[in-house]
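Sample A.
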Amino acid sequence: MTQVKKMWPLLTATHRYDKSISTLNRGRGQQIEAPILAYLIETANGRILYDVGCDHAKIHDPVARTRYYSPQVFDFGAPEMQEEQRIPNHLARLGLTAADVDVIFIGHLHFDHAGGLKELRRCGCGAEIHVQNDEVTAARSGADPAVFADDLLDDAGAPLPFCLQHGEYSVLPGVQAVLTPGHTLGHMSMLIELPKGPPVLLAGDAADLQENLDDEIAPGTLWQGREAQALASIRKLKVLARDTGAVVWPNHDMAFYRRLPPFPGACE
């Protein structure tokens, strides 16, 4: 029986970029607005965060913004992140603090998914940080421009204490980690059994858009060009959804996000 009680989609920022970043060799020259999402999952045995969004300081401090997001060093440009979109502020609206989070599950270590780790720790979060061993190895190699090396360190410059995982596993009853590499080496999706309605399959960046799923189009950014692996992960998500009755949630699709309950509304 699932231990999941409810889940909140958290809009942590928005990002305008060329559509070809989400759909390989498709949509070049077309600008899209994408939500940057995290998910708070309340269970009978604690709270889980899937992803943590961007580092607020890198966006709002002028020196840091130039260092990380200037066109000379970063093609994507900076996301837009409002004060109320910072995860500690989302938690506060629910009567919670960062210390009330028990597990942080990082689907992959790109800047828009792992950048908020330091702020949460600064706010008193002592949660285990689950991430795939392969993901950390690739991220620390310096070969992925969407990983900001500073996001993997604490305020003192020491490596964050990741709880390294190897392959698929049950986070707890009703929450299953699903291996979906291609976009990154150790990318993870998550299958969540809600108490009511069909299960939810958080695709993460294995599928940015509904189009990735419908047309079986790989994400536009891939680890070492692994299109076949990314397509296999998309097909794996679709088979898992068919077999479990789950609904697959694309991760950066604004039209899909707008159909979800507006915060502080939850999915139950």
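Sample B, a different protein:
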Amino acid sequence: MTPMLAPVADADFEAMLALRIEALRESLERLGRFNPDVARARLKSQFRPDWMRHLVVAGERIGYFTVEPREGELRLHHLYLRPQAQGQGLGAWVLDHVKAQGKPITLAALRESRANAFYLRHGFKVVEEQDFDIEYRWEAVA
């Protein structure tokens, strides 16, 4: 099935929070950092519907992502897929969509998350390791 992108509205916040928790829970519990209140605050602090898109497959919202435009680059936040939608090429589809804009991309991934191997497979390079996150950067090959 071909994924589609759909706009995000303010009214989507609670559903997106639930999806975020569903997608991150396993990794956060493994690190002893699962806290729904922190998840809510973090999403709320970066909730910009104009930068966000739902990922829709067969009429169902199965994920979302945020692309923050910055000077000369893009910052990818919140690339979350429901666990049952992971491993089907949908995250790669999103990355290809963002990479097509032709700008460098930065992002952070939670330590010990499977997302780290995903980003490395897709050409991202580690630029900094922090206590809880790993910072990555991707640049198009000239």
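Observation for Sample B: Residues 76 and 107 are 5 Å apart (CA to CA).
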